[in-house]
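Standup notes
- DV: blocked on the single-chain target, sequence here:
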Amino acid sequence: MIQPKYYRTIWISDVHLGTRAGRASSLLDFLRHHIAETLYLVGDIVDGWNWGPSWHWSPAQQELVNEIAHWRWRGANVVFLPGNHDESKLSLVEELFGPIPSTSSLIHTTADGARMLVTHGHQFDGSLNPNRLLPIIGAHAYARAQRIHDWYHRQPGRERDEGRSLSDYFRYPARKAFEFLTDFRDRAVLAAARDHKADGVICGHIHRSDHRLIGTILYVNDGDWVQHQTAVVEEQDGTLQVIGWSGSHQNISVSEPMSQELGS
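- DV (later): unblocked, structure below
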């Protein structure tokens, strides 16, 4: 029997439980092959925007919830940081996971002494970001978008299309027009790190993993468990890296920075 791989800390986000899009089975497999002292659930673990007639709950999603509960039972420090999709449904999160420590942001000190600000990342969205509008548009429009997304990714060959989501195709032509007005992310990350006297920021939200410097600030994004199946991990010496999971016993280091997208 292969022993689980041990990390000091693991960060995951953007699982979107309650939809058909999330890869609960893959994350369940990942968690069963890893151990960490601390597990950070960095927002959008549950998709509260999809609550209602479109809510989807599978046996794999329930098993994943049970596995996270098992981590807590065996002594792991599990902390939930709400995202834009689940901050309005904290009671639902608690109903699924039980009483769980929750905070919008915190400082994590790595083994080598670095102070890392941890937060979901929607806090860095500008006022013109499309994500500000989605909760206003309503659950029905969001559910329709989810169905389009699901249909698109069931089409043959889509898995080979470099992992790009349908929203990427819709956003890309308009991105240049938005850049002037929404050139906020790097500046917002820098400002947040400086406000908290942090050496870096770890977040999710944009569904794209990343690991790079913004000036002297380390910016690390843990990606998602909808398409990319990535997490941020801390080794015993404090080293932070992004890893991908493509099946049992396979840790794939994601060393190069990923392209940065507008928020998801």
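- Follow-up: Residues 157-164, 169-184, 255-263 have pLDDT under 50 and may be disordered.
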